[in-house]
Specification:
- The chain has 2 domains: 193 residues, Alpha-Beta Complex (Aspartate Aminotransferase, domain 1); 252 residues, Type I PLP-dependent aspartate aminotransferase-like (Major domain) (Aspartate Aminotransferase, domain 2, 3-Layer(aba) Sandwich).
- The protein is built from 17 helices and 14 strands.
- Bound molecules: ligand F0G.
- Ligand F0G binds next to helix 5 and helix 6.
């Protein structure tokens, strides 16, 4: 929404400001670098922002994962860590908190999200089965493939169009899903993999109406429905703001209702839970729980800690309770939307509507002269760092990787650079600096020449690939 319009709306008292429901007690100094230092740092990093040293970064928008600021309550909770190998007090507190807010009966803790993805993929996918879902996520799809599954995208078409302003671009296309089930037979479907919000589509939410209909469709064919709950609190806020009948419901109640339509979930606690490490998988089914609880001891740790310290589980339990407060989530997403409004005012192409955890710059339109195999999103992230020391992340052809069958690059429709906002970390003034930096590289966009990949690891290449500038 243009700033002018917002101002007018503000005058009419339609839109109130979103100040944070906290004040600052401790600060962490950050360093500004010179252009020469940045030139050297990004070259040393092979033009991949994942390979930069954090000490060389000014404003770090690489990810919202594990980058949250914990509250004084959470830090106090760390001192209550019960570091017993088995049966830690903090595990039972976490179990109770997840049951209360996410509804699932059985909890298996893991060291982070992908630990949980590993367990559920191995337990619930048989060789040759299909896993339909609302757009891929990098680690999720890889674990599904490594378990013998084939991910099939059944998200609505609108999700692939950065300019389409559908309010729930994370929705599953029920017709696409039903056709897939009918063509292959229900026994060929491992489960439906539903993420709320959808990271790769721009942090876009799924509506309550969609998950309800999905539940019915899954019941009709006897297919399980599992949720990637990583940013499900943020998803619930969008339901409150956009979906008919939910405006007066607390986010906590919306979260519970949504989860109640699914059979289980996996979680990267590093996002919504406001902690720096941890995850879990939780299900209702006894047999599946039994398998997960048995597997966790092989890969993560005993089933009452799963790779987390007791203190981590305590901080997570407190973080869950803080994260479902309406005033918290309103300020969190309010800050993301503020940055989105600044960029929109300057006509910088970003994914619309603005999602929950990040601004996704549309690198295809930003660098309209660069074809996808010159890595426009990667180029944008490198240019932004060079301009101002701000670190962003590629979410385009590099992240999409290669097709395991053909070995060719996958060319996703969305070629995006993600400016991810950590929770409770930066101020509105930092957002102003970010917007100005993006504007500055946008003004110089014609000069960008693109990159070539000179080193490519086999798995999740975006993390470690190296590039060189094209002449
Ligand atoms: N699912 C989603 C939707 C995610 O965004 C992530 C991580 C994971 C699962 C895996 O969790 O990192 O704890 O192992 N996303 C991070 C990001 C890395 O930057 O978007 P993890």
């Amino acid at each position: 929404m243009p700033q002018k319009q917002l101002k007018t709306m503000g005058q009419q008292q339609k839109r109130r400001s979103w100040a944070e429901p906290w004040k600052i007690k401790m600060v962490e100094p950050i360093k500004m670098t010179t252009p020469e230092e940045r030139k050297k740092a990004i070259a040393d990093a092979g033009y991949n922002t994942f390979l930069l040293k954090s000490a060389d970064v000014y404003i770090d928008l690489l990810t919202d994962s594990g980058t949250s600021a914990m509250s004084d309550r959470q830090w106090a909770g760390m001192m209550l860590g019960d570091e017993a190998y088995a049966g830690s007090v903090n595990f039972y507190r976490l179990e109770k908190t997840v049951q209360e807010h996410y509804t699932y009966k059985h909890l298996v803790p893991t060291h982070q999200g992908r630990g949980a993805e590993h367990l559920i993929s191995q337990a619930a996918i048989k060789e040759g089965q299909i896993v339909p879902g609302n757009m891929y996520f990098t680690t999720t799809r890889l674990h599904q493939e490594m378990a013998g599954g084939k991910f099939v995208d059944v998200i609505i078409d609108e999700a692939h169009d950065p300019q389409n302003t559908h309010p729930f671009k994370g929705n599953i296309d029920l017709q696409k899903l039903e056709d897939l089930i009918k063509t292959n037979g229900a026994e060929k479907i491992a489960y439906v993999s539903l993420a709320g919000t959808v990271n790769m589509a721009g942090g876009q939410p799924v509506s309550m109406e969609n998950v309800k209909a999905l539940r019915q469709l899954c019941d009709k064919y006897g297919v399980k429905l599992y949720l990637d709950a990583t940013r499900m609190v943020e998803n619930s806020y969008f339901i409150q703001q956009r979906e008919k009948g939910y405006a007066d419901k607390p986010v906590a109640a919306i979260l519970k209702e949504f989860c109640s339509y699914t059979d289980g979930a996996w979680m990267s606690g590093k996002k919504d839970h406001l902690v720096n490490i941890g995850g879990w998988v939780a299900v209702n089914d006894e047999d599946l729980f039994d398998q997960l609880r048995n597997m966790v001891v092989i890969y993560e740790g005993l089933h009452t800690y799963g790779g987390m310290a007791g203190r981590d589980m305590e901080a997570m339990a407190i973080g869950i309770e803080e994260s479902v407060q309406d005033d918290y989530i309103r300020a969190r997403i309010g800050q993301v939307q503020y940055l989105g409004e600044l960029l929109t005012n300057w006509n910088i192409p970003i994914v619309q509507p603005v999602g929950g955890h990040a601004i996704f710059v549309d690198a295809k339109r930003f660098y309209a002269h660069l074809p996808q195999d010159k890595f426009p999103s990667q180029t944008l992230a490198a240019e932004l760092y060079l301009d101002s020391g701000i670190r962003a992340m590629e979410r385009g052809v590099v992240s999409a990787g290669r097709d395991p069958e053909t070995g060719n690059h996958r060319y996703p429709k969305l070629e995006l650079t993600r400016l991810t906002i950590p929770r409770r970390v930066y101020t509105e003034a930092h957002m102003d600096v970010v917007a100005e930096a993006v504007k500055s590289i946008y003004d110089n966009r014609k000069k960008a020449k693109g990159l070539k990949m000179v080193y490519e690891p086999k798995y999740l290449r975006f993390f470690q690939a190296r590039f060189e500038p094209l002449a």
